[in-house]
Write a structure and sequence with these properties.
Elements: E1 2-6, H1 26-37, H2 41-46, H3 50-54, H4 56-71, E2 81-84, H5 88-95, H6 101-119, E3 124-130, H7 134-143, E4 147-153, E5 156-162, H8 163-171, E6 179-182, H9 195-205, E7 216-218, E8 225-226, H10 229-239, H11 246-256, E9 260-263, H12 269-277, E10 283-285, H13 292-303
Parallel strand pairs: 1-2, 1-9, 2-7, 9-10
Antiparallel strand pairs: 3-5, 3-6, 4-5, 7-8
Helix pairs in contact: 4-5, 4-6, 5-6, 6-9, 9-10
Amino acid sequence: MLVLVAPGQGAQTPGFLTPWLELPGAADRVAAWSEAIELDLAHFGTKADADEIRDTAVAQPLLVAAGLLAAAHLDGITPGAVAGHSVGEITAAAYAGVLSHEDALSFVRTRGLGMAEAAKVTPTGMSAVLGGDQDVVVAHLEKLGLTPANINGAGQIVAAGTEEQLAALAADKPEGSMKVVALKVAGAFHTHHMAPAVARLEEAAQALSPADPAVAYISNKDGQAVATGAEVVARLVGQVANPVRWDLCMETFAGLGVTGIIELCPGGTLTGLAKRALKGVPSVALKTPDDLEQAKALVASLTV
């Protein structure tokens, strides 16, 4: 079974959208999306520097747009399941038919602006803890007042909290862990610090008319498949202030019998985790349009 996944914030790099805009119809599609959400996606995806695209209000819609653009060039490939990491859940929801592309981009624009505003209230951030026993790492983070905001599996847990709490973590890493790496994000996402953004998304969700997923949609909340569009949207709203359980998503992929994984643009992060947690499962990360042929070859190999 093929699983299609969409990366979250932090996957973006300067200029990553440039080759995708050279595909037929891509520039016009991105221009229309940009006008609809009043954000120049082409500029930020081609000319902006790392600091500009680190801005949460920019990064999130840029990532969803990039993922949808790449998905549009997979020529009708139908996965058995879809999932996204954090903001990638919105990309996955659009691919599964829960939201239109336009609604997905409008919703993620509100999400990015709301989370950016919430992040200004208190100086916060996130750090990745690599290695160590999961229970030991989580207990250590909670002792320091930090939230295990992303439990990613494959020996990676992302801690979120105030700058002071993260400094304490850097000085006192959990027993058995290899290292602590500060992430280039603008706030403590998926924690109580994001509560103000939840309120904004609840209001924005009232304008949506979600459809039920056309393929299995696996949620970050608990790694379970969600059957209705209304529940998908409810989870998208609440997930902003709750931990991402990507480890449980990958456990569900395994339970469903995953035989191949394609990660939408800008791919690499989630296929990297899968190589460690789902050993032997072939995967393709869509980094540039050159990777599309490899993705199609993977799908062909699964149907032989």
